[in-house]
Amino acid sequence: GVRPPAPHRARPAALAPAVAPAPGRGGRRPLHGWARPQHFGGWIEMSLLASVTEQQYSTPELAGLPEGWWRLLGLLLLVGLGYAVFWLYRREARVGAPLRLRVGLGCVRSVVILLLAIVWLEPVIATYTIRTITAGVVVLTDVSASMSIVDADADMPRKTRIERVARLLEADEHAWLKRLAERNDLLTYTFGEQTARRPLSWDKTESVDPAEPVVVEDAPPLAAVQNRTDLGQALTTVLTDVGESPVAGIIVISDGIFNQGMSASDVAAYAQRFKAPVHTVGVGSPREPPNLRITDFAAPATIAKGDPFEVLVEAAASGIEQMPVQLELTARRVGAETEGEHVIATRVISIGGDQTRAETRFKLNAEVAGEFMYGARLAAVPDEAVESDNRGEAPVLVLDERLRVLLIAGRPSYEYRYVTRLLERDKTIDLSCWLQSADTRAVRDGNTVITELPRRPEDIYEYDVLLLLDPNPRELDSAWAITVRRLVDEFGGGVFLQAGPHFSSRFLRDPRLEELIAILPVIPDPDADVRLSEQGAWRTRAYPIRIPDESRAHPLLRMHAEADANSEIWESLPGVWWYLPVLREKPLAAVLLRHGSAAYATRYGQPVLLAAQPFGAGRTVFLAFENTWRWRSTGEQYFNCFWVQLVRYLAQPRREGLSKRGTIVLDRETIRPGDYVKIEARVLDETFVPWHESEVAARVELPGGDVRSLTLKAIPARAGWFAGRLAIDWTGPAIIRVPLPGDTGDEEMLSKHIQVAGSDVELCSLALRVEPLMKLAEQTGATYVALDEAAGLPDLIENASQVKTTRGVDQPLWDKTWVMALIAVLLGVEWVLRRRHHLL
Q1: Which of 86, 153, 255, 626 is the most buried (most CB within 10 A)?
Q2: Residues 374-401: what's their mean pLDDT?
C-alpha cells in the first residue's frame, strides 16, 4: 500500500486503552492491557474519548531508501557492483578456475553486496497511529424573557417564540437535531443570564451490554424566564466545554436582544479565534409587538398614621398608537390573599405613538396603621405581547406612633411662633418645645409639655428630630453636644440648625459644641461677624434665592409634583434680607439653596443658604436665614409644606429603622434577583448600650409566607454592629427582622422592608433584531436564516472531524547480529576458496 505521510523517525504516540470487536457484534469492547502491533499490516482500533478514536497499523519500510536522484545513483551503484563481480570472475577463467567455482564465488560475493545494500537501506517495521477527532456542533437556544412573547404578525402562529423554537427542535422525534448529529457530535445548551447544558432526548450509541439498557435523560421543557441575555458568556462556556476538539459550527437561536456582556462584534471576534463559525437563527418579527408595562412604582417605605404621602407610577408603551389606557391603584394588607385587594384610585392616561412614557402621581393619606402592599396595574391592549409586566407594587408600613420632635429656640421669633403652631396641629408629629428665653415658671409650647431641657442620653434618644432655631449656646455643654451627635450618628436621628442674628454666630464658635458643629453640612466662617458688619444692620431690600440645577429634585424642595410648577413657586417666594455667612459646604453635603446676588460671591461661589447631608445613620440640615415665615404672604401652604417636609426628611432614617434601639443598613438601594446584599445591623440593649455578642440570629420573611434564617456576625472594632450577606433569589417585597435584647415580640424587633424588583431590560424592546444576528454570522463565515427557513441549516454544516497521523518508534530488521555474522561468514568462505585454488 501507499505509506501515509509522516515525519522521518517521528516520536511515538502515547499508548491508549485498546478496543477490539466484541464477539458476535459490530460494537467494540475494551481490551485489557495496552494494544501492541503483532503483525505487518495489522489494524488495531483504540478509543480515547467519545469524540476521539485512534487506529494503529504496522508495515515494513526501507528507512534508508534515498529520495530523488540519490535513489537513481544508488541503483546505478548496485548495477556497477554487479557488473564488477561479473567482470572479476570472468577474468578468473584465465588462470584455470573452473566454471562451477567461479559461479559459486560470484554468488557469494553478490550475496554479500546484497546484504550490505539491505543494511544501507535500513529495513524496519514502521508503526503508524491515526487519530480521528470528531468535530462538535453546538445548538444555543435563547431562554431569556423576551422569548416568551407572542409576535403580532398575522402570518405567524399565535405561539410564543420559545414554543416555536421547541417545535423546530422536537418535531418528528427530534429529526432536526438528529440530522445535525449525523456528521458531528451534538451539544445543546440554553442561555440567558446563565448557560446550562441540555441532555439529548435520544440515545446516539448502542448499549454495550443488552442486559443494561441505556438510560436517556429527558430534557426539561424550554422556558423563557431569564432576565438578561449574555451571548458572550454562553460562547465562553461552550468553547470551554468543547476544549481542543474542532467545532463544525455553533447555531444560535435567538431574537437578537443581547443586553449583557460582550457585543455581537466582540462575540464574533472571540469565535474567530477558535475558528468556530456561528450560524444564527432569527426568532420573531422585526415589528415591535404591542406592549404596556409599569417601569417604576415608587412609594415611601415607612409613614406615620394620618400622614399624607405620594405614589409615583411610570408607564411605558411600545408597538401601539397613542390611546387612552386605564391605570388602577390598588392596596391590600400584607399577609392577606390577593382577593383582599381593592382599587383605591383610577386614572385614564394617554400613552403610545410618540409618547412612549407617562408619569402619574397619586396623593394618598394613611388612615389605618399596618403593613400594606400598594400596586398599580394597566389594562391590557389588544394582542399585547406580555401582560405580566402591566403591574408594579411596593410595600408601605404605616406606623401608629407619631414623630417625636424637640424644638429648642433662643428667643420667641416669628419663625418660632409660626413653626410651633404648625407642628402642634400636625397629627403625625408629637412636639416638645424649649424656649430658652422663657421664664422657668412659664408654660411651654408643644403637644408633650416638658419642664426642663432634656440632657440625659435616654431622654434625648427618645426624640426623632431636633430643631435648633437660633439656639443660645449658654445653656448647652459638651456632654449635651456629644449626646446629640450620637443621636444622629448611631440612632438615625435628624438635627436641624437655623441661623439667626442673635446667637448663631456664637453657637458656631463655641468650643464646647465642637461635636455638634462637626456633624453640620457646612464649615463655619471664622470671619462671619466681620462680613455681617460689612453688610450693615439695616437691609432695604431682599435678595433672591437660587436653586442649583443638581438639587431641583431634592425632596426638601418639592412644593409641587410638576418640576416646572415647582420652579415657579420657588421663584415667587420672598428672598432673604439677612443670612449668616459660612465658609463653604462640606464634601458630602448637597447645597439646596444659594444666595442669588453675585455681589456676595466668595472664592467658593455663591453663599450657601440651605444645605443637607447624611451623617452616620442620620441626617443634618443647615438653614442660613430665618425669614421663611414671610413665605406665608405668597401662600401659607408653601411655608407649611417646607417645614413638615423638613421634619419628615430628617426623621426618615429613624423611621425606616423602626426602633430607637438600633437600625438596619443595606449596601444598596436597588435590589434585583441574583444580587448579594450586605446587611449591617446596629443593636442596643434596654439602656442604649451596644450589645456585645459574637452573633445575632435574624430572619427574612419572603413573599408567600416563607421564612429564612440569617446569622449576623459581630463586626470587630464596631461595638454593637453585626453584619451578614443575603443572596437574593426572589422578586417582590420582603422583611428583614433582627431581635433586640430582652424583647420577645415582633413589634419591638428591628425591621427593614425591601423590594426586589425584576429586571425589565428584556422587555424594553421586543422586536427581532436582525442586524446583530446577521453581523455575527457574516463575520464568522457562517449563515443567518429565519426560524421558518431553519429546516435546511443542518445540510450546510459539513463533517469537520480532523484526522492526524503520527509515526511511532521503528522496529529495525537490519540491525541484527546474525546479519553481520552472515556477511562475515560469506566473506570468509570466499577468501578460503580463493586461497585454496590459488586465486588472487
Answers
A1: 255
A2: 84
Residue with cell 400596586: 375
The number of helices, as runs of H, and strands, as runs of E, in the chain is 15, 38
What contacts 24+ positions apart, CB below 8 Å, involve 330-337? Answer: 330/374, 330/375, 330/376, 330/377, 331/372, 331/373, 331/374, 331/375, 332/372, 332/373, 332/375, 333/370, 333/371, 333/372, 333/373, 334/370, 334/371, 334/372, 334/373, 334/395, 334/733, 335/371, 335/705
Residue in the block written with cell 383605591: 344
Average pLDDT of 754-779? 82
Residues in the chain: 840
CA 200/CA 188 separation, integer angstroms: 7
pLDDT at 38: 35
Return the bridge partners of 391, or none: 377
Q: What is the pLDDT of residue 39?
A: 35
- Residues 406-464 have pLDDT tens digits of 999 999 999 999 999 999 998 889 999 999 999 888 889 999 999 999 999 989 999 99
**Burial, 774: exposed, middle or buried (Cβ in 10 Å; 0-12, 13-18, 19+)?**
middle
Print the SS3 string covering 237-294: HHHHHHCCCCEEEEEEEECCCCCCCCCHHHHHHHHHHCCCCEEEEECCCCCCCCEEEE
Residue with cell 439602656: 687
Q: Is the dihedral of CA 213, 214, 215, 220 positive or negative?
A: negative
**DSSP conformation class of 64:** T
Which of 60, 183, 55 shows the shortest CA–CA distance to 128? 55
CB-CB contact of 292 with 390 (8 Å): yes
- Give the Å distances, CA to CA, from 670 to 298, 444, 588, 728: 12, 44, 21, 12
Which amino acid, residue 169? L
Mean pLDDT to the nearest integer, 664-669:
80
Q: Do 636 and 658 meet the contact criterion of CB atoms below 8 Å apart?
A: no
The model carries a pTM of 0.59
Phi and psi, residue 755, nearest 5°: -125, 120
Distance of CA 687 to the CA centre of its chain: 43
Phi, psi of 682 (to 5 degrees): -100, 120
**Of the candidates 690, 689, 684, 687, the residue with the CA atom closest to the CA atom of residue 717:** 690
Percent helix, percent strand, percent coil in the chain, to nearest 5:
30, 30, 40
Q: Cα 403–409–415 angle (5° rounding)?
A: 85
DSSP secondary structure, 405-451, as one string: EEEEESS--HHHHHHHHHHHH-TTEEEEEEETTS-TTSPPPBSS--S
Phi-psi map region of 660: left, alpha, beta (phi>0 left; psi -120 to 50 alpha): alpha
- For residues 29-36, average pLDDT: 30
* Residue 523: pLDDT band with limits 50, 70, 90: very high
235 and 193 Cβ atoms separated by less than 8 Å? no
**Residue that wins the pLDDT comparison between 168 and 742:** 168
Which three three-digit cell numbers place residue 612?
A: 443637607
Instruction: Tell me if residue 493 falls in helix, strand or coil.
Output: coil
pLDDT at 760: 64
Q: Give the model's pLDDT for residue 497.
A: 97
| CA gyration radius, the chain | 45
Q: What is the pLDDT of residue 20?
A: 33
Spatial CB neighbours of 446, under 8 Å, sequence gap ≥ 6: 407, 420, 424, 431, 432, 433
d(C-alpha 22, C-alpha 342), whole Å = 74
Distances (CA, A) of 636 to 290, 423, 545, 556, 630: 47, 14, 18, 17, 9
Render the burial of 403-427: b for 16+ CB within 10 Å, e for the rest: bbbbbbbbbebebbebbbebbeebe
- Cα–Cα dist 433/143, whole Å: 62
Q: Which residues pair with 25 in a beta bridge?
A: none
Angstrom distance (rounded) from CA 229 to CA 762? 8
- Cell of residue 34, nine digits: 495496552
Q: Cα 62–66–68 angle (5° rounding)?
A: 130
Task: Pick 29 or 264 by higher pLDDT.
Answer: 264
